Amino acid sequence: MRVRSAAALAAAGEREAAGAGALLLAPALCLFALFAAALAAFFGLSFRRVDPSGAVIGDALTFANYGKALTDWLYLRTMLLTLQLSVQTTVAAVVLGFPLAYWIVRSRSRLVRAALIVVVAVPFMTSLIVRLYALTLVLGNTGLINRTLQAVGVIGPDDFVPLIRNQASVVIGLIYFVLPFVVFTLASALRRLDLTVEEAAQNLGADEVRTFFLVTLPLAGPGVIAAASLGFALSATAFATPLILGGSAVKMIANMIYDQVLFVHNVALGAALAVIALLATATVTSVYARLGAGAAEGPGA
Amino acid sequence: MRRRRTPAARALTHAGRVVVWLLRAGALLVLVVPIALVVGLSFARDAYVVIPPSGYSLRWYANIVAERDFLPAFVVSLEVAMIVTAVSVSAGSLAACGLYRWDPPGRRWVELALASPIMVPLVVTGAALLVFLNRLGVTGAFWNIVIGHVLITFPYVVRTVSAALSRYDAALDEAASGLGGRPWDVFWRITLPIVRPGIFAGALFAFVMSFDDFTVTVFLIGADMKTLPVAIYQYMEWNLDPTVSAVSAALIGMAVAATLVIERFVGLDRFLGIR
């Protein structure tokens, strides 16, 4: 057996580790290179002109697509609508999700806890298309809600409340889509809170409502911000939900990008819209990373 | 000792409790009702969705096979998800180990690069891949879908395996190398067994995400090549019969099974980041 000094051993170990490290990272970095190349090719088109068939015209660079995306009322309206529906969804999902997350974390019964986690996890694990189809059966003109309203006599037997293919149905669908993400993010943040602080507040005379608003909520702040940012990012880039529940009546930015690329064949404008959408979500994601650091690390964390 | 409360404070507390229970009930209704409804309606007898059903039968489950669209799409989804899981788990786990064992100069940038596909909206990734792969002349829909799914899933594997590694004691590595273990042996015999739960969580996540993806896939499908979520979407656009309810109920059954498997092997709260 060779005898090596501790220093030589450490140096050799570091060199080997560096070599092995580069080798271990190589496959994933190749995947990243592919991803980056695809994005670069697509985003490059946003500075080009295309003819109606989608072919690039000439080599000249132009900002016309950005100009159109940011001044044409059709696209501006879509962006504003995306913003509005996402904010509505985020507020509703956090308000609905917080009590549920709190219940999951604080319940003394293992059975209740396990049942609640399963109730949130099963929709989380179910295909989104399936969940949206299920929601059309609840919201449709002859769906569960309208049939129930008819049965109890709130509306006539042939009347219905329009709950599908409008903004309300898209917001309901988005809440349904993001709620599991929001609940799990909040639960993982709430779990880190020290229960004794709440008890101390109550022992000092604060009632439950005051304890919640003055102690629990401020402490849970970073978790709430993380959950809200995640909910917002998911809603603002949602594609399937507005497609199925909004149809042609309610289009969000992702649907607009899809239409431009696949139906209108204006890939250049689609690319400009994509760059704008990416910058907007990247801003929110970085806020999420900064404000909610450590509050939620996603699955497996 | 608690102080006595005024009636107003008591009323406020009471109202607060009522609001909390209403919100809890609301959240549970949103999560449970659609899934329960679609499972119930999958056993309906009627030729289109009627609430409540006039009777019950299994005919729409039989129709899944008769429709000829769903089973091939299911097989495609399964094949894609299995290949994607294998590739993403390999590349993602190796990268997580590389990041952990080796502190490259630009470590933060490498981490950011490997996490970047998570930050890009799926619709942008899908459109970009469509444009890029078309330009390269790559037109095989099956492999395009696989590439798309690998790109959106491997960052999650990097994340789950990194999380498992952060709980791992580096001294074990040093001990193994000090005793003469080569890097590969150390990796295979020491590191891998310890990070197995993280790999398992990443694999499940990659599989489920690939199997369920609609947004990236819809850009990459071919005329005769589609996955199950796309087949379901196309069917429900043109048909009102409850076949989709039956397919949905079957997929919900799979989701329940997956949930139980995760609970058994990883622990749901750990998988979902609650713990």
Report on the architecture of this protein.
The complex is a heterodimer of chains A (301) and B (275). Chain A is built from 12 helices and 2 strands. Chain A has helices spanning 6-44, 64-71, 73-106, 110-125, 128-139, 144-151, 167-190, 195-203, 208-236, 240-246, 253-262, 267-291, and strands at residues 49-50, 56-57. Chain A has 301 residues and is mainly alpha-helical. The two termini of chain A are 42 Å apart. Chain A has 2 domains: 1-37; 51-291, MetI-like (MetI-like fold, Orthogonal Bundle), CATH 1.10.3720.10. Chain B has 275 residues and is mainly α. Chain B folds into 2 domains: 7-59, no CATH class; 64-271, MetI-like (MetI-like fold). Helices cover 76% and strands 0% of the residues of chain B. In chain B, helix 3 runs antiparallel to helix 10. The longest helix of chain B is centred in the N-terminal third of the chain and has 35 residues, at 7-41. The chains are: A mainly alpha (301), B mainly alpha (275). The interface between A and B is large, with 105 and 114 residues.
Largest sheet of chain A: 2 strands, antiparallel
Question: Can you tell me the CATH superfamily of the largest domain in chain B?
Answer: MetI-like
Indicate the CATH class of the largest domain in chain B.
Answer: Mainly Alpha
* Oligomeric category: heterodimer
3D shape of chain B: globular
Second-tier CATH architecture of the largest domain in chain A: Orthogonal Bundle
Structural class of chain A: mainly alpha
Mean pLDDT of chain A: 86
Helices and strands of chain B, in order, run as: HHHHHHHHHHHH
**N-to-C CA distance of chain B:** 33 Å
Which band does the percent of strand residues of chain A land in? under 5%
